Structure formats: structure tokens, C-alpha cells
Amino acid sequence: MGLKTFGTMGVDWEARVDFERLRRERLHRIRTLLQQSELGALLCFDMANIRYISATHIGTWAMDKVARFCLLPRNDEPIVWDFGSAARHHQLYCPWLGTERSRAGISTLRGAMPPEAQRAEDVARKIRIELEERGLHREPLGVDIVEPPVLFALQKEGLKVVDGQQLLMEARKIKTQDEIILINTACAMVDAAYEELYRAMRPGVRENELVGLVAKVLYDLGSEHVEGVNAISGERCNPHPHVFSDRILRPGDPAYFDILHSYNGYRTCYYRTFFVGSASKAQIDAYKRCRDYLDAAIELIRPGVTTADVVRVWPRAEEFGFPNEEAAFALQYGHGVGLSIWEKPIFSRLVSLDHPEVIEEGMVIALETFWPASDGWSAARIEEMVVVTKEGCEVITRFPAEEPIVAGTRYYTATGPLPATRETQSNLNNMGALSRVQAVVESARREGIPAR
């Protein structure tokens, strides 16, 4: 495909992201699927779905509030209810939405509003009125996520509420050309963050400092939201805790990172593993095993292949220390990436063998593998994002990961550079050193020098 990479600006002298086309094609895709379904309308509270349908956004602070909502009736245009000032802003700056379809309206703020205020009932009444005006109030209403009071209020209004999330996931799984450019750009920004991480990692630096460094690099480049930075080092690598801490990096540590951020709404999920100063044989072996499983999966990605075909090349949970696939979930894993970091299709031995999904051109997929080292505490974690093309796939995560990378100062001894492959403890860490110590002790004993 030869995926293009641009800067983060819009310009008049080069065809880059066409945001009008992006809005038009996303809405067309979900409207087409809605018309083909049994649903009369879709009601969305999930910010990613609201953005996909309406191209409105009020900041990532609102992601967990479930306060704003959007209705897409069959054969009609979307209506968005939002914080009053945000609704006014949409009227001024979102001409594709129109002034009449941007309205003030707030849900329960996840229960923070007193039930007596009847915010849930107000939401349900607004939706019922719109559906009645269009003759859709007796048709199933697809809802993505919902607070129980709102669900009960919708049902009390006589509306038949069904799962609408699957239809939205189906719409979002195939990316448009503009979505792919935005995801590719988001990955380029993470490439830069890994470059700075590589330069900054050394003994004495803490995981949380590295998280702050990544956030600064990404926001400086134009990130909309740093959703999370997994920074895992040393003994914390196995088992994988999925959260950073204030642990201090030490010589010989493995350190792996997952950088999740958003550029114009589009996410990354992008792991890399480094070693601080040096790597042991056990760590190198773990990295190679992790990489081999990842490469085997990438080699299979092409249209027509199923998720079951891919996960069969990954190890069973019992092979790396877990009792079953649920216990090992998300360690050997794959998923679609778009406005959310986990979209269709899902690759996991937990579900994919019995419920395979077909890989299609235009999907953007993240594949991630994990392998514990034989030393009992180290591990490797690597992830690549790929765009599915007509004949295969193209990797869009470009920071080097083919071989283990050692970060930090290069040390020199009297005889030359300290090897980058060495055991993680510098004192008595191999049989050669132990033999030398034993020889010194034996020589002292023969000469009558008391051992200390």
C-alpha cells in the first residue's frame, strides 16, 4: 500500500487528511449498517461512538462521565445533546451538524445528580419524542453503554432497548483512508517518544519520570490525549502488572513500555522492551521467543485469514505458567485499533478458536506478545500495529524491535567495552568468577594466610 506519513498540520499545498471526507465516510458507513439492521435508531453515550457519528468532541475529561449523548435515527441525521456551552460551540463551529441538531442535555453524571432531579427521565423523554416524530418509537433502539437509571427510564417510556454496540463495532472495524493516515501519524509520534526513552533510560531514573517524559514528547508533538503509559521494569516485569510505579531502574533491568495516546481521536497501542546497560542470556532468550511468536502472527495477517488461524501459532497458557486462557488473557493478544484501543477483531486463544473473525482489508490491528525469562523475574513484551492490505499487511510501528536493544551508558573497563550481554549481577555471577575466587582462597590457604 505504501502508507503515507505527513506532518501534524493541515496545509493547502499537499493532500493530507481530508477531514470533511473523514466525517462524511464515517457517518455513511454507520448509516448504511443501521439501514440494513432491524434497529430504528442508535443511542450512544460512548464518546468514541459519538465522535464517529457526529464528529464532535469536548475533551477527554468527559470520557468517563457518560453525560452527553447522540441519537442517530434510521434515514436521518444525528442529533447531539451536550453541555450547554459545548452545544453552543458546536452550533458555531460544526456546520456539518447544524444548529438545530446540537442541543443542551445532560444525563445523571454517573449518579452524581440526585435521582429526584429526574435527569434519567429527561433523557428518555427526549429520545422518545424524537423517535415518535419519525415513527420509530416501536422499533428496537440500539444503545452502546447506559446507566441503569437511564435504561429503566427508556423502558418506562415504552422503548425496546437492545445492544447497539455490535453494530457500531462493525462499522468502525474497517478504516477509511483518512483514519489510516491519522493512526499512522499517531504511531509516528510514539516512534519519537521511544527515541527519547532510549536516550533517557539509565540506573537511577524512575518509571514515573519516564512516563512524564513520554507525555511531554507526545503533547509537544500535538497529541490530544495520552491515555496511558505502561512503564514496567525489573522484578515488576513478571507477572505483568499493567501499571507504572516509582520503581528505580537498575543495571541489568528489563524495561518494557506500552504507549497509548490519541491524535485527532485515533489511538496507538505500541509496546517495546529495552534492557538497561546489559542483558542476560535468559533475557535475550525470552526476547527472541517473544519476537518469534509476534513475527509468526504478522506473517499470517492478510484478507481472508481468521483470528483462529493467527492465535494457533501462539503458545497455550499452560506453556508459560498460567492455568488457563482466561488467566493469561491479553498476554498473547491482538485487537483492532481506532477511536478506541480495543476494537474488532479480537485475537485471543480465550475466544478466537471457537469464535473466529475474518481479517479484512482496511483493518488496523495491534498484535502483542509476552514471554517470561527463565530467571523467574524478567520478561519481554513487544507489540506491532499493522494495516491490512490487499495481499498482506504493513507494519506502521517503526521503532526498532527486531533484536533486543540495550539502553543507557556504555561502560569501559581496562580491557575495552563492557559487554552488552552479561549476567545481571556483577558479583560472583558466573562459574568463571567463582573459580577465580576459589583459586585465590586455595592459594591463601596453602600460604597459611587466614581466610576472611
UniProtKB/TrEMBL annotation:
Residues 183-390 form the Peptidase M24 domain. The keyword Lyase applies. Its EC number is 4.4.1.3. Pfam families: Peptidase_M24. GO terms for molecular function: dimethylpropiothetin dethiomethylase activity. Gene3D superfamilies: Creatinase/methionine aminopeptidase superfamily, Creatinase/prolidase N-terminal domain. It is an enzyme of class 4 (lyase). Keywords: Lyase. The keyword Lyase applies. PANTHER family: AMINOPEPTIDASE (PTHR46112), XAA-PRO AMINOPEPTIDASE P-RELATED (PTHR46112:SF2). This is Dimethylsulfoniopropionate lyase DddP. The lineage of its organism: Bacteria, Bacillati, Chloroflexota, Thermoflexia, Thermoflexales. The gene is dddP.
